[in-house]
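Researcher: Here's the sequence for the chain we discussed earlier.
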Amino acid sequence: MNKVESTIQKMKLNPDYEKYFFQNASKYQNLYVWLEPLYKESYFEAQEDMRIYLSFLETVSLQNKEEERSDTTKILLDIVNAFFEFRQEHKSYDYYTDYSMVKILFNLPKENITLEHIDMIHMLLKDSGGSSLLNSEIEKVVLPVLVDNGMNEYILSLLRVIFDYQVQDKGKSYQEREPLLEKYWLNSLLEKHSKSIVEMIDIAGLEILISTVKQVIDEDEAAFNNVWIASIEEHPQNSFPERYDNQLISFTRDLLEYLDADKVKSFIENFLDEEHPIFKRLAFHTINNKYDELKKLFWNWFDAYKDTINTTFKHELYKLLQDNNGKFSEDEFDKLIAWIESLDYSKYYDDVSAEQLRIVTAYKKKEWLWSIKTSSTKAQELYEKYNAVNSSKLEHPGFDMWTSGTEWVGYQSPIEEKDVFCNKTVDEIIQEIKTFDPSKIEKERFTRDSDLIEGLANDLADCVKENPNKYSLEIEKFIELDWIYKYHLIYGLTNAWKEKKKFEWGKVFDFILNILDEDFFASQEQYILWMKGQIASLVEYGTKNDENAFDKKYLPEAKKILFLLLKHKEEEQIEYDNDMHTYVLNSINGKALHALINYTLRYGRLNSSHSVKWEDDVKDFFTKQLDENTEYSKSIFTILGDYLPNLSFLDKEWVDSNFNRIFPTGNDDLWEIAISGYFLYSSTVYTDIYEQFKQHGHIEKALNFKFKSDRTKRKVIQHICIMYNSSKDDETILDVIESKDQESILELIRFMWQIDRKNITEEARTKIFSLWQKIYDVFREDNSSGAQAIFSTLSKWFVFIDAIDEEILPYLKLTAKYTEKNHNSYFIVEELERLVQNSPKNVGTLYIEMLTNDIFPTYKQEQIENTIESMYKLGEKNSAKMICNLYRKRGIYFLNEISKQYEI
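Model: Thanks. This is the structure I predict for it:
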């Protein structure tokens, strides 16, 4: 028996000796000789308490890192994996063991680390509630290994861990997200490694970040607001940079700044169409950062949406104008000046005299003119004109709010201690509201009496949100208050219900039915108009989720309220019919229609065993609307398109028999609205609905139709691609190609790349190459700019190639020839580095095709060097030499050392 075996036997007989051994083993060299014998004797088996072994195992892993032995690596990996499996099964938690096992894993050669290990780290952090020694190891151990070894896919997986979060403090008037990593370590990690991560994650990382931002918004519409995130750029006004929301947006901003303009262009275009202002703010910041390349996106947006500009994205728009005005044309200055001159502030200052309004308007307009006047004589002259009316110094132009220390400039609440106010009885609160005199309150600059009244009403809403049942039980007492307070009362109840706080719905419905009289519907008072929409929203949130719905016994009252709102619908002149979805979400009539649908779906789920799941009066309401053609019809057909799959659930026979009335091909305006409603906001492709669209000619019409929003056509193309991918429609996609419509084909190429590139099966390759051949056949004799753009964008499809044979080489040569038409050569460079091992000759052919057509890629230089060096090693010396010479002839010399090395 050798020394190792005798020592192990002694340890098994004497626990104190065993403890002494493991406590002191880390002091010795060559511990690998002990690892396998101990492992075979069942030491290191995964269990609740493994601390006694951790120092030994860590030291073995460090010694193995210095001089790697494959058998040692294998045993250590087995131990770590067994521990992870144990943790997953038993959900036990020991912060020190977690921390140590991850360190051991990341001391192993990189080939032993898998994406599943990143998932396990995610699990460990979640189980610890984010409070763990492991927080530090993400920064100190995990990230450096992944970054130093260029493990991009792993970085992407870890990105989801880094920006995971938990919602806390839901009892407050806003939701607060806490990062899964402790806030200190998240800040530290991003401060030290943000640049390295940004350089590795590319577009795939941007997609992850955008998905996370959208998830946050789905949970909390108030997230990423101007109060917490004063500016997208680094700025002293960002008082809370360590907050999760701020970190997420700042990192997304850094990535957008780093990526090439061509890579982010489609994202920025989509951002400009998003409803939540944070996307427009990111878009304007990025356009500002890459103005020369992205300016067309801005001016297209400005031409279409200048009338929608508001304070939620003012700062980034202002800064874009201020930073780039030296690049504007006279025509662009004229557009901006015409817009500034059209600004009407009367609706925001309806309680001031005409003279006061003139003075305020002058101040506001000269603020916008300040952003462009240095490069425009017209703007300078107008600035002087308005400065003569109001000579006040511009304070912090581009910001509507400014913090100085802890004081906010902006709205001023008249309540010093809101908790004291909220804790009063309902009678006391009502009395305080009745006796409130804003004229006796000291005001901030530009604060009006009406602002203080609004502040008090907001305070009431916050109180109601915190304790809704208190107010619902005595809600009838609020009947005597002004409409501003009744509106905020219902607003507070709505927010409370969204946070799953209970109250007495019967009394609330009685209160609402009591106020919905003829005088109410005849009034045009602002808060009465808003009240209609808020009542509808309350019903909607009370029915849209079965887990948080009011008792079904109140459904008749809810329907009565909704039909009263629908009977007394608002007269409307819809201006934004190219974005009807957003309009209907925010309009009074639209809110009532959304509420009716959600009420009906709640009723349908309660009667799910019936073939027809909605009530006759609701069915009759929508059936009657199918034959109308009014302004109101625009809202109706938007709703019908938006909720088509839900309507099929309620009454499939009604949808099938009325399909061509819901999508009336004889009325282009309503057809476009309904089609856009369906395609833009349907996240699922429903085969039966798609087949009806195709059968009745709607797909064909959509492919040839000039939609107000290009996004609709893109979504139609995406549905066609998905149906092609699932082998349910192999024909229509060929019609798209044969149409020669450039934008449609570009969308087809981009979308097929997006959905298949992460799961490249043989079936996917076959389908892609079939389309590639079709595109090649249709456009190979076409030298137009549009055809060149299509071949350029096909660079993305190089990812689907596993070897370059003679059959596909002609397709690839055309793409290589035109790849820089849309600046896509970096796709080819990246993939040729991969393909050179299997196809060195044809890789050389494609490089020469680019170079002889005056395309000299230099990004990424390392990948090009690797490719050319591989060509030399694989016997393609002549092609490699020709490539080096062509670069040299162009005055680009980074391949010189490689050519010298192999041409001696």
